[in-house]
Specification:
Blueprint: E1 3-6, H1 10-21, E2 26-29, H2 33-40, H3 51-61, E3 64-67, H4 70-76, E4 79-82, H5 97-109, E5 114-118, H6 126-137, E6 144-148, H7 158-163, E7 168-171, H8 175-184, E8 192-195, H9 197-228, H10 232-240, H11 261-274, H12 280-304, E9 311-315, H13 330-340, E10 344-348, E11 364-365, H14 369-373, E12 378-381, H15 393-399, E13 404-407, H16 414-420, E14 423-425
Parallel strand pairs: 1-2, 1-4, 2-3, 4-5, 5-6, 7-8, 9-10, 9-12, 10-11, 12-13, 13-14
Helix pairs in contact: 1-3, 5-6, 9-11, 9-12, 11-12
The protein binds 1,4-dihydronicotinamide adenine dinucleotide (NAI) and uridine-5'-diphosphate-glucuronic acid.
Pfam family, one: UDPG_MGDP_dh_N
InterPro entries: 6-PGluconate_DH-like_C_sf, NAD(P)-bd_dom_sf, UDP-Glc/GDP-Man, UDP-Glc/GDP-Man_DH_C, UDP-Glc/GDP-Man_DH_C_sf, UDP-Glc/GDP-Man_DH_dimer, UDP-Glc/GDP-Man_DH_N, UDPglc_DH_bac
GO molecular function, one term: NAD binding
């Protein structure tokens, strides 16, 4: 069975490469000719550890190829994964225009049986919608199935997650589709859950919203820890040892960002509202997350009195380490507020770049961490890049104007930083 992956972004490129690694012949299709040209040359246009090596390997083996020719691609492949974006609409719902476009492309062009698999994160009911969109434009009566197969990979660990998933969720009522998907995933060792399409679609949103809830819970608790003089990291360790709670996603900080948690939580709240249900807990999760970067700024303002004309170094821009993805990065909320309060902002990230927006024109983007820190009145650490732990902080203190360190990811050791002579403030941790 030949596999076509439509949309060669983070998920599409990873999906294509993982299936190539499993021995399938895969084609990646995108409307963005520039992306396709780069991928064809073996160049990954985004930062994701390990992916470029695999891309080059499978361009070499001939198991992967890329194209912008959608008609030919759709006709030549039986299994078609939809991996296009589903961004937020202004009302909070998921923007389904790209998925609809792909469904119509498939419907208009198909020339035989197609298994259409939605990997994009899509609202409950999308499997039925995609079926309808295909049927509405079909030129012949070719059979097809639409299945839901949500993706759970994390950026920065995309390959590891996609090659070793915790589970594969298959949402279908068709035995033919189930059998084909079981065949496609035959070399993956993990539980395969076959369920109704609507259930599969909700499992994806429920997972992301649950993880976001864990984070906001810890972030709110961290604010109490600051008042009580209790260390949130130790609290997280203590509760995480209970397997019912688990150790992961208990890290307090300046909040979650990225292309998924904010949009998926908001899409789930929107879908609930459409169904006259209020997901009130998730409303609070969003509220805590939106105020969390400001919480660290408030702490810093207490210390500095005012940000006006202060030199502030922002270390770490990406929404998390090991990615250059700046979508909904909490560092941007911090920078926006610092700029509005007339601070002089110097930014450094090992790989990520500030968006080329007019609002960031006054920010100095530094090539070296020292350049950002030199003469600073405060450092804000916004992404927990491991390399920041290896920095010679004694040296950094020496080159700063005032040794104020606001650690938005609780990355550094507070005792060590205090011993060096920093004023150190984390989140629920000092
Ligand atoms: N980024 C992530 O870590 C994860 C994302 N997801 C979900 O996967 C989906 C895709 O996410 P990303 O890969 O981050 O998006 P992305 O924005 O990086 O990539 C989407 C790609 O689709 C292409 N595209 C749009 N319309 C097209 C069309 N009609 N035909 C062909 N290509 C088209 C775009 O040019 C782009 O390259 C979203 O629904 C997202 O929520 C799920 C799990 C993880
Ligand atoms: O649907 C998606 O796109 C993906 O969304 C997340 O993956 P991702 O956004 O790549 O990154 P995470 O590692 O989940 O981190 C998200 C945000 O939460 C923050 N976070 C994470 C963990 C934690 O304990 N505390 C915390 O603040 C991170 O800094 C980051 O800003 C999910 O973890 C994936 O399972 C899912 O497939």
């Amino acid at each position: 069975m030949n596999i076509l992956v439509i949309g060669t972004g983070y998920v599409g490129t990873t999906t294509a490469l993982v299936f190539a690694e499993m021995g399938w012949n895969v084609t990646g299709l995108d409307t963005d000719a520039q992306k396709i040209q780069q991928l064809e040359k073996g160049v990954l246009y985004f930062y994701e550890p390990g992916l470029e090596e695999l891309l080059r390997k499978h361009l070499g083996t001939g198991q992967i190829r890329f194209t912008t020719n959608k008609d030919k691609a759709i006709q030549e492949h039986e299994a078609i994964f939809i991996c296009v974006g589903t961004p937020s609409r202004p009302d909070g719902g998921a923007d389904m225009r790209y998925v609809k476009q792909v469904a119509e492309d498939i419907g208009q062009t198909m020339n035989g049986y197609k298994l259409v698999i939605t990997k994009s994160t899509v609202p409950v009911g999308t499997q039925e919608q995609v079926t309808g969109w295909i049927q509405a434009v079909q030129k012949g009566s070719f059979p097809f199935d639409v299945a839901s197969n949500p993706e759970f990979l994390r950026e920065g660990k995309a390959l590891e997650d996609a090659l070793n998933p915790d589970r594969v969720i298959i949402g279908t009522n068709s035995k033919r589709a189930e059998n084909l998907l079981r065949t496609l995933y035959r070399s993956i060792k993990c539980p395969i859950v076959v369920t109704a399409p609507r259930t599969a679609e909700l499992i994806k949103y429920a997972s992301n919203a649950f993880l976001a809830t864990k984070i906001s819970y810890m972030n709110e608790l961290a604010r109490l820890c600051d008042q009580l003089g209790v260390n949130i990291i130790e609290v997280a360790n203590g509760i995480g040892l209970d397997p019912r709670i688990g150790t992961s996603f208990l890290q307090a900080g300046i909040g979650y960002g990225g292309s998924c948690f904010p949009k998926d939580v908001s899409a789930l709240i929107f879908a609930a509202k459409q169904n006259h249900i209020e997901l009130s807990i998730l409303g609070k999760v969003v509220n805590v997350n939106q105020t969390q970067p400001l919480y660290l700024l408030d702490k810093a303002r207490e210390r500095l009195k005012s940000f006006a004309n202060k030199k502030v170094a922002v270390l770490g821009l990406a929404f998390k380490p090991d990615t250059d993805d700046m979508r909904e990065a909490p560092a941007l909320r911090i920078i926006d507020r610092l700029l509005s309060e007339q601070a002089k902002v110097y930014a450094y990230d090992p790989v990520a770049k500030l968006p080329a927006d007019v609002q960031y024109e006054s920010v100095a983007s530094c090539m070296a961490l020292e350049d950002a820190v030199q003469g600073a009145d405060a450092v804000f650490l916004c992404t927990e890049w491991p390399v920041f732990q290896k920095v010679d902080w004694t040296k950094m203190k020496g080159i700063m104007n005032r040794p104020n360190l606001f650690d938005g990811r609780n990355l550094l050791d507070s005792d060590e930083m205090n011993a060096i002579g920093f004023f150190y403030q984390g989140i629920g941790y000092e």
